[in-house]
Design brief:
Blueprint lengths: L9 H34 L5 E13 L2 E12 L4 E4 H6 L9 H11 L4 H7 L9 H9 L1 E6 L11 E10 L8 E10 L1 E4 L2 E4 L3 E5 L2 H14 L8 E6 L3 H4 L9 E6 L1 H12 L11 H11 L5 H12 L17 H13 L8 H16 L2 E6 L16 H11 L4 H12 L6
Parallel strand pairs: 5-10, 10-11
Antiparallel strand pairs: 1-2, 2-3, 4-12, 5-6, 6-9, 7-8
Helix pairs in contact: 1-13, 3-4, 4-5, 9-10, 13-14
């Protein structure tokens, strides 16, 4: 489907033509430059290097397809084949995408399907197949540098925990992706609350999950052993026991009020609030009423009210800001992982969830690829003045006057506006 405006002004035509011509001319100039460098390398080759053929290379950039030809050599001493140009400039072998294109694809894949990511992250008319996107993510290593900046306030730190069930290859049942949001302070905004100093954390492994939480509390929020924090979530047993896993401070479990009140309403049809649920007589009535009900939520509520009713008193504490982890899952994880046809590899889930969390945490994501390179066979090649060859290449190209002037201004660091 093509979406076009009903009318186009002369200004739009001039700008679009200039941009399109600029992309074409840039790619042509780069191709000519690389071929000139390859020719200079050929003039410095050793006698034992024989040219087998001249082969074209295509690499997809953020502005289009870069094409250039270079010589393929056979080394009669080492009995190896190589492209001298690729070895000299460290061009990865069998790599058809520039790094900035890969980064755009990975970022898009954390929000949309592989097919859409390969289409929207690339130049129009040059889509990357969903199989190529899948291989790219599988062969990518992620290194996260956390953003530890905080807005100073007197609020208590809140840790809210939940899980997302996801279809996984090789498993008949859905697997858990553990998710967490840490925040310190809220700002009322109409009927909503905006979380301050927010950090998203996720992991497929529960032990690693709590390691990340402890690391973030210690390094980013500067929590000490005597400090108290709130840990909130539903009535899952691992969440209720989570204070035992948080080792850097005193953690207090507070069950999510929404789940508690909903479980009571679903089991008994009784509508309560944070005041009634903290009344001793009301608690005894609920416990007695739930004894004859064989339901998982009813059993959890009965156990909670019997063994840990003090956890509900924090609903009345002005320092407790509530729990919204269900909303965090809906906003940031469900949109990508909740599509029914999707079946994932667990490693892929881990990588994409890292990208999602890092984007929201404003962290730096360093990405590495398992690329292979040709090695230079000797150190006798004289350094090539790339800038000089670039200028000579421009002079030889049949560029329009305005485009040649544009490139010269860019090269010399001039203001590109005439």
């Amino acid at each position: 489907m093509n979406i076009i405006p009903t009318s186009t002004t002369s200004f739009e035509v001039i700008v679009n033509n200039f941009i399109n011509q600029g992309k074409i001319s840039t790619l042509e100039a780069l191709g000519k430059l690389l071929e000139r460098i390859d020719k200079l390398l050929y003039s410095q080759k050793q006698p034992f290097e024989k040219v087998i053929k001249i082969k074209e290379r295509t690499i997809q950039t953020s502005i289009g397809m870069l094409r250039f030809k270079r010589r393929y050599y056979y080394d009669e001493l080492e009995h190896k084949y190589r492209f001298l140009l690729d070895a000299y400039l460290n061009i990865p072998r069998r790599n058809r995408l520039m790094d900035n294109v890969k980064i755009k694809i990975i970022e898009a894949a954390s929000e949309m399907s592989y097919e859409k990511a390969g289409r929207y992250a690339c130049e129009e008319g040059l889509p990357v197949s969903k199989a190529a996107v899948c291989r790219l993510i599988r062969n990518t290593e992620f290194f996260i540098e956390d953003n530890n900046s905080l807005i100073i306030n007197d609020s208590k730190v809140h840790v809210q925990i939940d899980e997302k069930f996801i279809n996984v290859i090789g498993s008949a049942n859905k697997k858990k992706l553990y998710t967490c949001t840490i925040f310190k302070g809220v700002i009322p905004k109409g009927k909503k609350k905006v979380l301050q100093n927010r950090t998203l954390i996720s992991s497929k492994n529960l032990n690693l999950f709590f390691e990340k939480i402890n690391k973030s509390l210690f390094e980013k929020y500067h929590i000490k052993l005597d400090d108290e924090i709130y840990v909130s979530g539903d009535l899952a047993s691992y969440i209720q026991k989570s204070p035992e896993k948080i080792l850097v401070c005193k953690a207090i479990y507070v069950p999510d009020k929404f789940h508690v009140l909903k479980a009571i309403k679903d089991s008994l049809g009784l509508k309560t609030n944070k005041y009634l649920i903290n009344d001793g007589a009301c608690q005894k009535l609920i416990i007695d009423s739930l004894k004859g009900i064989n339901d998982v939520d009813a059993s959890k509520i009965r156990t909670l009210l019997s063994k840990n009713p003090e956890s509900l008193t924090h609903y009345l504490d002005y320092e407790y800001d509530g729990c919204s982890q269900e909303c965090m899952n809906s906003h940031y994880f469900c949109s990508r992982f909740d599509k029914v046809p999707n079946i994932w590899r667990f490693d892929t889930i881990e990588k994409l969830s890292q990208v999602i969390c890092s984007k929201q945490n404003r962290s730096v994501v360093k990405i590495g690829w398992k690329d292979k390179y040709y090695k230079m066979p000797y150190d006798t090649i004289e350094p090539i003045n790339v800038e000089k060859e670039y200028r000579n290449g421009l002079d030889e190209m049949n560029l329009p006057h305005h485009m040649r002037r544009f490139f010269y201004r860019l090269e010399d660091g001039w203001d590109i506006i005439p």
